[in-house]
Amino acid sequence: MIRHALAPVLPRCAAALELPVRLDGAPGVALTFDDGPHAEGTPAVLDVLARAGARATFFVIGEQVRRRPELLRRIAAEGHLVALHGFRHRLEPRLGVAALREDLGRGREAIAAVLGEPPLLHRPPYGIYSPAGLRLVRESGMRPLLWSRWGKDWRRLTTPARIASRALAGTGPGDVILLHDADFYSSRHSHRRTVAALELITKTLSEREIGTVLPV
To answer: For the chain, how long is the longest CA-to-CA vector?
Structure first.
């Protein structure tokens, strides 16, 4: 259980569990966004990505999809990849097997009801799998994906410049950057700082010429 909890921050633990944190061999950097769709944050993120000519992967929450299916359709229509972050945003180690199975199934169904097919990628809330949760994800045919860089954009006292600096530090092709397009489970209006940081991130990635920002 300890390794599952440490996997998001310790590459050795992720490797021991065969949890990918990078896209080795990819020509560019993967931008990923957790916790949406959000009425304000998701459209703002999509607008920045459109201006930058970039695509991303959105790890969505099923209960938020049910509230805003039109935003999920927009994400997919604009060429971004939709992935699952859970039906509800709950820490896996606190849930039993039955609750984990129900959450995974309801999350997949929420996405499939809007887009016509279930997602292929999964990332747990807080990036923490339980042994049972990881097993259920793999048994469902989905692939787990964590991250190699993050902006820690959920923090109340952070700034767009600090978010961008953290996300970009040492970044190169194959890295997966974690950001959030919603403030449901983080500090109020945190998504606004993320949007401002995303302007800096996409500009910097373009100037570095390390490859197109890719969906996973």
So the answer is: 48
Q: Provide the whole-model pTM.
A: 0.96
Q: CA 192, CA 180: separation in Å to the nearest integer?
A: 10
**Cβ neighbour number for residue 187 with a 10 Å cutoff:** 14
The residues carrying an active-site annotation are 34, 180
Cα separation, 128 vs 9, whole angstroms? 10
Q: What is the pLDDT of residues 101-131, one digit of tens each?
A: 999 999 999 999 999 999 999 999 999 999 9
How many Å apart are CA 1 and CA 32, to the nearest integer?
25
Tell me how far the alpha carbon of residue 163 is from its chain's centroid: 15
Collapsed DSSP state (helix, strand, coil) of residue 145: coil
Which among 1, 10, 2, 28 is positioned nearest to 146, based on CA atoms? 10
pLDDT digits 0-9 by tens, 138-177: 999 999 999 999 999 999 999 999 999 999 999 999 999 9
Give the Cα separation of 24 and 131 in Å (integer).
25
Q: How far apart are CA 54 and CA 31, in angstroms?
A: 9
Q: How many Cβ atoms from other residues are within 10 Å of residue 106's Cβ?
A: 15
| Residue-wise pLDDT tens digits, 43-95 | 999 999 999 999 999 999 999 999 999 999 999 999 999 999 999 999 999 99
Q: Across-strand partners of 180? A: 34
